[in-house]
Write a structure and sequence with these properties.
Strands 7-6-5-4-3-2-1-8-9 form a nine-stranded mixed β-sheet. With 488 residues, it is α/β, with parallel strands linked by helices. The two termini are 24 Å apart. Helix 3 (31-43) runs antiparallel to helix 5 (59-81) and helix 10 crosses helix 12. Helix 8 links the parallel strand 1 (124-127) and strand 2. It has 22 helices and eleven strands. The longest helix has 25 residues, at 460-484.
């Protein structure tokens, strides 16, 4: 498979390769040809599963990769059959995904990085261009931002450096509310238009989407929208404000009418996790409406009013793991849970890890993750010294986390992480190993970003509750997960 990939990648960067791939995607819009086109793709699934194996050899991991690939194909089939996305959108995004998966386009930057550092660079840049938001959701990680924003030339420079130095494949916009961003008469979609060879993802509350912006999303073709929900109407409105659920549904319908792809982003807590994965909610967005994917972000105690009791309990976390894979297999829905699906990406993907992601906020702080609000470097300070994004990536705090990740995923870490089985589902440094994470923050001098991050760091009761959580989840999950993910 690697030989095939090496041969295909350069072709995808040519005009001929682009025309051939667009024509292939176009077959999805002919009912008589769609089955054959997807059937050919299914034949490649098994080879892809084994050729792309990087994070363990357990049969369960291979099975999960196969199920997820089949969910992607089934979702594509449903979208094309319903004409839920325009042909232009599917052709454009399909070409970008093919180039990304084949390693085409900007591969030279990745090879240069690997020669220097011994491993590949991050593939994803996550940026929060503004901390401003028109909602005040309890527990929001950006709830204390004060509404700062990054200048458009800074934002564009950041993305350009990530492309030039790392060859990034995906650009993600977080917030605040990205649709509120404005600088020098430029908005988020103006940046997307300047980087149309990147796959872009916007996390939004949906309230700022109108028919004009929906049509622009569709015409660009390289950007998709993740609409935030907390459950069904009552639960979503309880956290996000009256009418919020209706606004999300309205935005989803306008995006679909325009021919753009959307998904949903769900925050799972101890109070709503069963509702998020209920048949009623899944039907609402994946049957009644054509959501392409669903992200599940398990609540992390930070930002406005951090509350460890809102984290899904260890038992609920195991239930979410079981239920998501049941849904992926039986309903062929693309669900992504970065805690419970660590086996797909090799554990924690934060801090600029190889093939992972790095996060930069509206004030220029470079952080390991949106859920780890500590930083020892500002991209603005780095630029003032004549440095680049790669110099920020090499900061002591981020380097410390990456070393910790390598030790734990490779099996060299202590305790539960050193075991072969389910360790990749227990590799969140904040949630699963808080004492070690806190030690890394203090040892490297990383500063809290936001008032609550500082109070959490200095609170013995917070530290105790987080340490207890990680220990309790390890004790509960180890027998089941280590058996399920045993290499045999």
């Amino acid at each position: 498979m690697s030989v095939i990939t090496s041969a295909v990648a350069p072709v995808l960067d040519t005009r001929l390769g682009e025309r051939v791939l667009r024509a292939g995607v176009g077959l999805l819009y002919h009912d008589c040809a769609r089955g054959a086109a997807l059937g050919a793709a299914r034949l490649l699934t098994e080879a892809f599963v084994h050729a792309g194996r990087r994070h363990g050899t357990a049969p369960r991991i291979d099975r999960e990769r196969e199920l997820f690939a089949k969910a992607v194909l089934a979702t594509t089939d449903r979208m094309a059959a319903r004409r839920a996305a325009s042909r232009h959108f599917m052709e454009t995004s399909g070409l970008l995904w093919a180039r990304a998966l084949a390693g085409a386009d900007r591969a030279g930057a990745r090879r240069r990085f690997e020669r220097v550092h011994g491993f590949e660079p991050p593939w994803v840049l996550v940026v929060a261009p503004t901390g401003a938001c028109n909602l005040r959701c309890p527990g929001c990680y950006s709830g204390e931002s004060g509404g700062g924003s990054m200048a458009f030339d800074e934002l564009d420079r950041l993305v350009a450096e990530a492309r030039r130095l790392w060859g990034i494949k995906v650009l993600v916009f977080s917030g605040g509310e990205p649709m509120l961003y404005g600088s020098d008469s430029k908005r988020i979609l103006d940046l997307v238009a300047r980087h149309q060879d990147l796959l872009c993802l916007v996390f939004t509350n949906g309230t700022m989407i109108d028919r004009d912006s929906a049509r622009r999303y569709a015409s660009l073709g390289n950007v998709t929208v993740a609409l935030s929900i907390e459950g069904l109407a009552e639960t979503t409105d309880a956290r996000r404000g009256p009418g919020s659920f209706e606004e999300v549904c309205r935005a989803a319908d306008m995006l679909t009418d325009a021919g753009a792809i959307f998904g949903v982003s769900m925050t799972a807590t101890s109070r709503n996790c069963e509702e998020l994965l209920s048949d009623e909610l899944l039907d609402r967005f994946f049957a009644d409406r054509p959501a392409f994917y669903g992200f599940i972000f398990q609540y992390m105690p930070e930002g406005r009013g951090p509350d460890p009791s809102l984290m899904p309990t260890p038992a609920q976390r195991l239930w979410i793991w079981e239920r998501t894979w049941e849904v992926i297999e039986s309903r062929r829905i693309m669900l992504i849970d970065f805690w419970n699906h660590g086996t797909l990406v090799g554990g924690c993907a934060a801090a600029g890890r190889e093939r992972g992601y790095l996060y930069v906020d509206w004030d220029g702080n470079v952080l390991p993750c949106v859920f780890a609000p500590y930083s020892d470097v500002s991209i603005r300070d780095v630029w003032d010294r004549g440095g680049t994004l790669s110099d920020a990536w090499a900061s002591p705090f981020l380097s410390e986390i990456r070393g910790w990740q390598r030790r734990h995923v490779s099996g060299g870490g202590p305790g539960e992480c050193g075991e072969v089985g389910g360790r990749m589902l227990r590799t969140c440094p904040v949630r699963d190993h808080y004492p070690e994470f806190r030690d890394m923050v203090l040892r490297t001098g990383a500063r809290p970003v936001g008032e609550s991050a500082g109070s959490c760091l200095s609170s013995p009761s917070f530290a105790s509750s987080m340490a207890d959580y990680g220990r309790d989840f390890a004790a509960l999950s180890r027998p089941l997960l280590d058996e399920e993910y045993h290499s045999g």
